[in-house]
């Protein structure tokens, strides 16, 4: 029996050229395939992992949580509306009371003496040279 010694050429010589997309077959190469070559292979299809559907708590969270946020927003807007309306009515009542007092007193104009505006001086520390 004769033995034949073969020096292994670089792995790149066994790979197909980059332009062709032929799959590498282990049987045709008669060499073990390294993990680097396996990583270069592209899968044709998508791998899909099947799981159980969404649970009841997922549905509750998906529908109840947004609805509760909407309800809180509406409730808060109603409270703000009531407060603004109360403030407005209170201001109207104060204005009406002021008008009534002015009508009772008559049109007595109280002269207001305005003092001339005094120019403001700055209180800066003086520079020492």
Can you lay out the helices and strands and say which pair or pack?
Elements lengths: L25 H4 L5 H6 L15 H50 L24
Outline of the structure:
By secondary structure, this protein is an all-alpha fold. 47% of the residues lie in helices and 0% in strands.
% residues in beta strands: under 5%
**Class derived from helix and strand content:** mainly alpha
Mean pLDDT comes to: 75
| Count of DSSP strands | 0
Taking Cα atoms only, what radius of gyration do you get, to the nearest Å?
45 Å
* Count of helical stretches: 3
Please give the oligomerization state of what you see. Answer: single chain
Q: What kind of sheet is the major sheet? A: none
Fold and architecture overview:
With 129 residues, this protein is mostly helical. Helix content is 47%, strand content 0%. It has three helices and no strands. The protein has helices at 26-29, 35-40, 56-105. It is elongated and about 120 Å long. It starts with 25 loop residues before the first helix and ends in a 24-residue tail after the last helix. The model has no long low-confidence stretch (mean pLDDT 75).
Keywords for this structure?
mainly alpha; single chain; 3 helices; 129 residues
């Amino acid at each position: 029996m004769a033995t034949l010694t073969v020096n292994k050429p670089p792995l790149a010589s066994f790979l197909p050229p980059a332009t062709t997309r032929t799959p590498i077959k282990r049987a045709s190469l008669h060499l073990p395939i390294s993990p680097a070559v396996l990583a270069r292979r592209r899968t044709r299809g998508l791998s899909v992992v099947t799981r159980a559907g969404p649970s009841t708590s997922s549905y509750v969270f998906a529908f109840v949580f947004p609805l509760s946020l909407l309800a809180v927003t509406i409730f808060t807007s109603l409270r703000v509306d009531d407060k603004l309306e109360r403030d407005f009515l209170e201001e109207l009542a104060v204005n009406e009371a002021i008008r009534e007092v002015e009508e009772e007193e008559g049109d007595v104009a109280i002269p207001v003496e305005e003092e001339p505006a005094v120019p403001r001086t700055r209180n800066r520390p003086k520079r020492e040279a």
